[in-house]
Specification:
Elements lengths: L1 H5 L11 E6 L2 E2 L3 E10 L4 E6 L4 E9 L4 H14 L6 H11 L6 H14 L4 H16 L12 E9 L6 E9 L2 E2 L3 E5 L4 E3 L27 E3 L4 E6 L6 E7 L4 E7 L17 E6 L5 E5 L9 E5 L4 E9 L9 E7 L3 E6 L2 E3 L7 E5 L5 E2 L9 E5 L1 E3 L2 E2 L3 E6 L3 E3 L11 E2 L4 E6 L6 E8 L4 E7 L9 E7 L4 E5 L17 E5 L4 E9 L9 E7 L4 E7 L2 E5 L3 E11 L6 E5 L6 E3 L2 E3 L5 E8 L8 E3 L1 E7 L2 E6 L1 E8 L3 E6 L3 E6 L24 E6 L2 E4 L6 H16 L5 H14 L1
Parallel strand pairs: 2-9, 10-12, 11-13, 21-27, 28-30, 29-31, 38-48, 39-50
Antiparallel strand pairs: 1-3, 3-6, 4-7, 5-6, 7-8, 7-9, 12-19, 13-18, 14-17, 14-19, 15-16, 15-18, 20-22, 23-25, 24-27, 25-26, 30-37, 31-36, 32-35, 32-37, 33-34, 33-36, 38-40, 40-44, 41-43, 41-46, 42-44, 45-50, 46-47, 48-49, 51-52
């Protein structure tokens, strides 16, 4: 709640493009395929950015939200295209029948000319345009479940055969900004993708069943061959099933990406897609089930096949919710998977080769860090038989390190330490606790910090400090970390305590739920305070009008009581960009950095880097801010989700992109002579009322131009409709 109150809005007045889902959220190397983005504020979309190498993408189409005038025009265009097989005379008669009020000779001649031109339309092109319009209108939903993801961008993605597998970051680029980022994965096995959902309808209380997705019967259980990655979307109340053959003795790993693809959903409880995974044998008996993987919402299922046969795994949402942004990627097969590493880190000048445990890791080679790698957080993977395992985090520090030694669960058997030190340990079994003893002096400040949950350990730590008599001096269960990213449970513990007297002291660590096992590893730092700071900058993309300024919000994560000033600025900014340096006061944790530009327009997005400098113990230290997005979870909580890049776009407000299509020249219509009806009103002839008001004509012409530029109208139909509007003026 404190974070909710302190988070400041990003860049006031900045209307950034937003994407709420990407489907499919990845693909196989050596393939080209269609990807759909759902979002809003995507007018003028012109490009796609993907981090990493060997992945390219280009915009193929954009489906903005339509209005009723545009839907009517598209319907009329399809009707006109389907008349191409009729004779010229029959077509002209039909047009006159559709426009009974246009009775002047001039209007009739114009319609006949348009009909004659329409007869020359290539039939193949007409059928292609009909199919495109039908696809476009099929995607339209007048009452979408979420307006924020109702606009669609269709992108063609190409992944090179030698593209390295793993997670990327993908965004859309519009004329006026770069969108929010979402994850995109390069896989390593064949992929199967279900047909994309159309825009889901908003559910009405008491009529929820009317909004349920209708799938064809042949989609009830898709047939796949392992290993395979399947891509799908879950609609409300839906269950997706995949059938495959397995052999006795196979050690299957079925991993799910769901919440990891769309980290936070603002209007859904608990704030993300909560996948549930179940496995069935050939008789339909459930043989395995998972609704998460340890503390992560995305489930991973392990199963050793007892006999040859067909098996089926099924995925659904735990609460049977669903819509387009409930996207998943499930990878199944006899693939390597790391369940634990030990130790969870090492020292910069003493690299270690961690012990790994998991599934299908025979002859696996684990990536290691070089001795030159600086302190920080890294990812390690194992490779075996040509496949890479899941990445696991690994920490590196500068302090001396030791390994916990059992038995050490009582004061009498406490493991003696010399500070400063990092202890690599485990809570080996349920109800285990580890106790460490050190000697301290009166007035000395001691920090105890646990890294476990942040390193993917299931340990929910609790730590306490006692003196030799057993008196409690400090205690902590959970410690909030603004940089925790996707971890909503800040389970790692921390305290900073001042020792009251000389003597022996004891630090106790345990799991708050009294759980334990070989995977319950931790890194316990015991040292004097090491004042430091990290930075986050929000948002992860910035838009500036020509020769103007905009603001970024910078958050300081102060460590071990650091209370010094932090000088903020840009590091090596691209030409044309600058920021007025500012200094965060010792007690300040949020600041605004004003970024300015002398440019009129950037041809493509540029990359910025925000840095902060501070005096740490007499040494000037520089920290680069991690770009992040301020995301809302379930209507209330807010989190800073890290991004890979900070992008900036400068746009010219006066710039108008050249038209994609140029209408054929038409002669100016002659003046329209008012026509009197043959009906009498009060014994006199009355003028025929106009078909359109002035406002309706303006709206119709605007809709015609928009659809024409989007390639949704043929030249003949466009000319005909514009002529009709001009004749009706």
């Amino acid at each position: 709640m404190l974070f909710c109150l302190t988070v400041a809005p990003a860049a006031p007045g900045q209307d950034r493009p937003y994407i709420g889902f990407v489907y499919p959220a990845g693909g196989q190397p050596g393939t080209t395929f269609e990807v759909r983005f759902g979002g809003q504020g995507l007018d003028g979309v012109e490009g796609v950015t993907v981090t990493g190498s060997r992945v390219t993408a280009k915009v193929a189409d954009y489906y903005r939200r339509l209005d009723m005038e545009e839907l009517q025009l598209l319907s009329e265009q399809i009707y006109a295209l389907r008349q191409d097989t009729l004779s010229d005379a029959a077509r002209a008669d039909l047009m006159r029948a559709r426009n009974p009020d246009l009775m002047s000779e001039t209007a009739t001649q114009m319609l006949a000319a348009a009909a004659e031109a329409g007869s020359r339309t290539n039939k193949g092109a007409a059928e292609k345009l009909i199919a495109r319009i039908e696809r476009r209108t099929m995607e339209f939903n007048s009452n979408p479940a979420s307006e924020a993801i109702a606009a669609l961008v269709i992108v063609e993605v190409t992944i090179a055969p030698d593209a390295p597998p793993g997670e990327r970051e993908i965004r859309l680029v519009t004329l006026r900004g770069v969108s929010t980022p979402l994850p995109f994965f390069v896989g390593q096995v064949p992929e199967f993708t279900k047909r994309a959902m159309v825009t889901a309808s908003q559910q009405v209380l008491g009529k929820e069943a009317e909004a349920l997705r209708r799938r064809p019967g042949d989609e009830e259980a898709e047939r796949i061959e392992l290993p395979c990655t399947v891509n799908g979307q879950i609609s409300s109340g839906e269950v997706n099933r995949y059938r495959f053959a397995a052999r006795q003795g196979q050690r299957l790993v079925i991993t799910t990406l769901g919440r990891q693809l769309v980290p936070f959903i603002a209007d859904a409880v608990p704030g993300w897609f909560q996948p549930v995974l179940a496995l069935y044998d050939a008789n339909g008996k459930e043989v395995a089930y998972q609704d998460d993987y340890r503390f992560k919402p995305d489930p991973t299922l392990f199963y050793e096949v007892p006999q040859d046969g067909d098996y089926t795994f099924a995925i659904r949402d735990a609460l049977f919710r669903g819509r387009e942004d409930f996207v998943y990627r499930i990878t199944a097969g006899e693939l390597p998977f790391i369940t634990s590493v030990f130790p969870l880190g090492d020292r910069v000048d003493a690299p270690v080769k961690p012990e790994i445990k998991g599934w299908n890791l025979q002859d696996a080679a684990l990536t290691t860090l070089s001795a030159e790698a600086p302190p920080g957080l890294y990812s390690l993977t194992a490779r075996t038989k040509g496949f890479f395992s899941n990445p696991v985090p690994f920490a590196r520090d500068t302090l001396p390190e030791i390994t916990e030694q059992e038995p050490n669960h009582t004061l009498a058997t406490a493991q003696k330490l010399t500070l400063p030190v990092i202890v690599n340990g485990r809570i080996d079994h349920p109800d285990d606790r580890d106790v460490f003893q050190f000697t301290g002096k009166a007035g000395e400040s001691i920090v105890a910090e646990v890294q476990a949950r942040r390193l993917d350990s299931p340990l929910d730590s609790v730590i306490k400090l006692t003196d030799a008599a057993g008196n409690l001096l400090a205690y902590n269960d959970d410690h909030e970390d603004l940089g925790a990213g996707l971890n909503t449970h800040h389970a790692d513990s921390y305290f900073l305590a001042r020792l009251p007297a000389d003597g022996a002291y004891f630090v106790h660590i345990a799991d708050i739920a009294r759980q334990g096992g070989g995977e319950y590893g931790y890194r316990l730092r015991l040292s004097a305070p090491r004042p430091d700071f990290d930075l986050r900058v929000v948002p992860s993309s910035l838009t500036l009008p020509s020769k103007s300024t905009n603001t970024l919000t910078v958050y300081a994560i102060r460590k071990d009581g650091f209370a010094g000033p932090i000088r903020l600025g840009l590091k090596d900014p691209p030409a044309g960009f600058s920021a007025l340096p500012i200094t965060m006061a010792p007690t300040q944790s949020v600041a605004r950095l004003v970024v300015g530009t002398t440019l009129v327009r950037t041809p493509e997005p540029a990359t910025l880097a925000v840095v902060g400098c501070a005096d740490l113990g007499g040494q000037d230290a520089t920290r680069q801010a991690v770009p992040a997005e301020d995301r809302m979870q379930a209507f209330l909580w807010r989190h800073l989700v890290p991004a890979k890049q900070l992008k900036v776009v400068v746009f010219d407000p006066t710039y108008e992109p050249p038209p994609k299509r140029v209408a054929r020249p038409r002669p100016a219509p002659p003046p329209v002579v008012a026509v009197l009806s043959t009906n009498t009103v009060g014994g006199t002839n009355a003028p025929v009322p106009p078909k359109f008001t002035k406002e309706q004509l303006a709206g119709r012409l605007r809709a015609l131009n928009l659809l024409f530029q989007e390639g949704m109208l043929s030249d003949d139909f466009f000319d005909q409709e514009v002529a009709e509007c001009e004749a009706a003026k």
